[in-house]
Amino acid sequence: MVTSPQQLLADAQIRLAELLRASPAADLERNLKALLAQTFQKLELVTREEFEVERERLARLQIRLEALERELQSRAPAHPSPAEPVTQHTSAGEASAAGTPPIPAHPYQMPPQAAR
Fold first, then answer.
1. Please, which pLDDT band fits residue 98 given cuts at 50, 70 and 90?
2. Cβ neighbours of residue 12 closer than 8 Å, sequence gap 6 or more
3. Exposure of 48 in the CB half-sphere (CA atoms within 13 A)
4. CA distance 44 to 94
5. 25-65, pLDDT tens digit by residue?
């Protein structure tokens, strides 16, 4: 039986591919891919597209925050009037005898709401 070099090469290529599929190397490759996929999932990685979307969203929120801060500054009085003394509370949980809400411990912390 006479075979051409191209046929001989194609046959050898097919036999090598079958041998590699049946060898432990294929199992090792599958296990390694599964291990990498599991590791990447634990790292909670995101795609470049998701990252860019969140980055744009953050930039828009930063612009809105700065605008709101400027608006709040423009609405706030520059100095408290002398007739209204500023009272300080010792902790966020205390309220004065006049019934005013406590001053938050953090500038962005909202005081607890009354039960409805």
1. low
2. none
3. 0
4. 42
5. 777 778 888 888 888 778 887 889 999 999 999 999 999 99
**Is 92 buried (19+), middle (13-18) or exposed (0-12) by CB count in 10 A?**
middle
Domain boundaries, the chain: 1-44, 46-76
Helices and strands, counts by H and E, the chain: 3, 0
Q: Are 101 and 95 in contact (CB under 8 A)?
A: yes
Angle between helices 5-22 and 24-42 (to 10 degrees): 60
Helix H or strand E encompassing 39: helix 24-42
Is the full-model pTM beyond 0.70? no
